[in-house]
């Protein structure tokens, strides 16, 4: 996380707490409860966990103990087993300038037009090669700025007013620079970048001349231009490296930026990358990525909480609610307290020692056990991430208790065909560092454990198999019960006419409160009313928050397709056309209240229990 963002992210986090009409989804861990794992609900396959080499790789790469850092981050047996690494292609500032902070002054490879210096950035390159040798198998290249001589301000930290800083006639030059670096790495150093992005929080306006770090603003139309130029340059040079974007600071800005791009650029992008410092509408971004058939990454996140609990809660939301298939922490090593897994001054080549905080071990609770290829599965507990690997037969449960009291959790694995008879336990707390505890007996596919106050605990159960189907059962009939009101989704007055409104009403078992989920592929469903045979529909295909929900004849429209998203025993129903969710207007508890579509805000009035009728 860049220092410019630290204060703004704290202020933004405070403002987001007031945004929801309903109850939040981040469940309290206080009080005993049961957590049910559901392998019939299978979501994204994890690509892995990672970090960025900016800005620590440039400094640590010159340390005498640099290999020790690499081993503890990337070795799967003795370290965290991070398998994703983001490499910063530096812009390289004007040699006459000394504005950039020492650790942030990443050298560029093109110090002047037509001249390449392939001896540049040797330290960061060493760290990349060493990490690859330890097991890193996904590598992404990213840029924070074009070389200084391509910029309007003549520097890599931004324009004077925080606006666009790439000269209008240098878009193709910047694209050529990035692809030439990518090509040289492949042809000369044996590194093939899986993806590349020219953007870093591009819509943000804090990239200003005089800052001590690289940064470059792009208006959305200009983002589209540079992405188009970069894809053309990749194609021209025969590079297999994929395009990723838009790398916005907030989830919501990422969604807006991606949806602003041309059809051609959207098609060219293989992977939607977002930072999750700000924004809240994870459901909308998940819907966008799923509908477009794109991978979705949390490509950057960081915070100053050394305990790792804030990070763990973010991982839960990003993977469970947003559907990220890769999760990348900003800096594994940082000079600021709590921001990295390791703390080091990063301002000279002699001070090579470091301190390790609890966040390092919390990262291990996830990265050492939920390995690439594991499938995220359904879980009724919002405090727990569940994953299943059919190859190894392992189920992994990671539970976060950020409350000040212990709680008792009973884990129900009865929906698996078979499970092993014991659970391995690994816990990180204020006094424990990914400590392996005594195994817990699994009896009748259940076990009970204590979630210690302010801790993260991983449970690994071997010998699991699942022979059932996935998704919602074809032909099954469900009631949809609102979490907030306890009332059922209902066709008003049991109408069988197209255009009739959808309301909530007391559960009476009638056919107008019964619904069939019919798969349309990629996780989307039509929701058909049993009483009328018509579909749940957003009126007039509106994309506006507040639009009414009706029933309508099946016309194949995206406004009649819904993505159920697991939020811990309940689902949010996201519309494929709008990205908005089924919502009880104003969080009403009253029978007869209308249903609308609204941006996901974490409210219980947007969460539904699907109760099977037959």
From TrEMBL:
SUPFAM superfamilies found in the cross-reference section: (Trans)glycosidases, Glycosyl hydrolase domain, Ricin B-like lectins
Q: Does the keyword Aminoacyl-tRNA synthetase apply?
A: no
Question: What are the UniProt keywords, alphabetically?
Answer: Signal
One GO MF term:
hydrolase activity, hydrolyzing O-glycosyl compounds
Ricin B lectin domain mapped to chain residues: 475-611
Q: Signal peptide: which range, if any?
A: 1-29
List the protein's name: Ricin B lectin domain-containing protein
């Amino acid at each position: 996380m860049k220092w410019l963002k630290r204060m703004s992210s704290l202020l933004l986090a405070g403002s987001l707490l007031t945004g929801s009409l309903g109850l939040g989804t981040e469940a309290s861990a206080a009080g005993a409860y049961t957590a049910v794992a559901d392998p019939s609900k299978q979501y994204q396959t994890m690509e892995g966990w990672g970090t960025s080499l900016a800005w620590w790789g440039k400094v640590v790469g010159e340390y005498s103990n640099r290999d020790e850092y690499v081993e503890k981050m990337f070795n799967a047996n003795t370290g965290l087993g991070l398998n994703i690494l983001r490499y910063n292609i530096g812009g390289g500032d004007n040699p006459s300038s000394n504005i950039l902070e020492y650790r942030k002054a990443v050298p560029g490879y093109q110090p002047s037009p037509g001249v390449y210096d392939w001896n540049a950035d040797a330290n960061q390159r060493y760290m990349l090669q060493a990490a690859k040798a330890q097991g890193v198998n996904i590598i992404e290249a990213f840029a924070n700025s074009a070389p200084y001589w391509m910029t309007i301000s003549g520097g890599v930290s931004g324009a004077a007013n925080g606006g666009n800083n790439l000269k209008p006639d240098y878009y193709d030059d910047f694209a050529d620079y990035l692809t030439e670096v990518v090509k040289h790495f492949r042809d000369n150093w044996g590194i093939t970048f899986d993806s590349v992005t020219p953007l870093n929080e591009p819509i943000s306006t804090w990239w200003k001349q005089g800052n001590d770090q690289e940064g470059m603003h792009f208006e959305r139309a200009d983002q589209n231009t540079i992405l188009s130029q970069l894809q053309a340059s990749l194609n021209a040079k025969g590079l297999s490296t994929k395009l990723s974007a838009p790398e916005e600071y907030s989830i919501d800005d990422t969604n807006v930026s991606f949806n602003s791009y041309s059809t051609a650029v959207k098609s060219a992008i293989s992977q939607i990358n977002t930072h999750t410092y700000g924004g809240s509408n994870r459901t909308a971004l998940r819907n966008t990525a799923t509908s477009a058939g794109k991978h979705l990454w949390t490509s950057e996140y960081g915070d100053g909480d050394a305990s790792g609990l804030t990070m763990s809660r973010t991982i839960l939301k990003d993977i469970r609610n947003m559907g990220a298939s890769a999760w990348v922490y900003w800096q594994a090593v940082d000079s600021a307290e709590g921001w990295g897994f390791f703390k080091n001054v990063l301002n000279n080549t002699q001070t090579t020692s470091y301190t390790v905080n609890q966040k390092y071990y919390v990262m291990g609770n996830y990265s050492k056990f939920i390995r690439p290829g594991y499938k995220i599965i359904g879980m009724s507990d919002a405090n727990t991430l569940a994953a299943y690997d059919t190859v190894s037969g392992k189920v992994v449960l990671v539970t976060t208790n950020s409350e000040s009291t212990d709680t008792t959790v009973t884990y129900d694995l009865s929906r698996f065909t078979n499970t092993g008879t014991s659970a391995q336990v690994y816990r990180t707390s204020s006094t424990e560092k990914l400590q392996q505890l005594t195994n817990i007996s699994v009896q009748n596919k259940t076990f009970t454990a204590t979630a210690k106050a302010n801790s993260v605990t991983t449970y690994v159960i071997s010998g699991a198999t699942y022979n059932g189907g996935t998704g919602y059962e074809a032909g099954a009939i469900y009631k949809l019960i609102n979490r907030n009101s306890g009332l059922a989704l209902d066709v008003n007055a049991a109408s069988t006419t197209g255009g009739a409104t959808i309301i909530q009403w007391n559960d009476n078992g009638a056919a107008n409160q019964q619904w069939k989920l019919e798969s349309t592929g990629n996780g989307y469903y039509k929701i058909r009313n049993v009483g009328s045979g018509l579909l749940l529909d957003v009126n007039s295909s509106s994309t506006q928050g507040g639009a009414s929900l009706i029933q309508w004849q099946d016309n194949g429209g995206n406004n009649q397709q819904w993505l159920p998203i697991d939020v811990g025993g309940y689902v949010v129903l996201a519309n494929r056309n709008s990205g908005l969710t089924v919502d009880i207007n104003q969080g009403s508890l009253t029978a007869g209240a209308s249903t609308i579509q609204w941006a996901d805000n974490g409210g219980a009035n947007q969460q539904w229990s699907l109760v099977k009728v037959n």
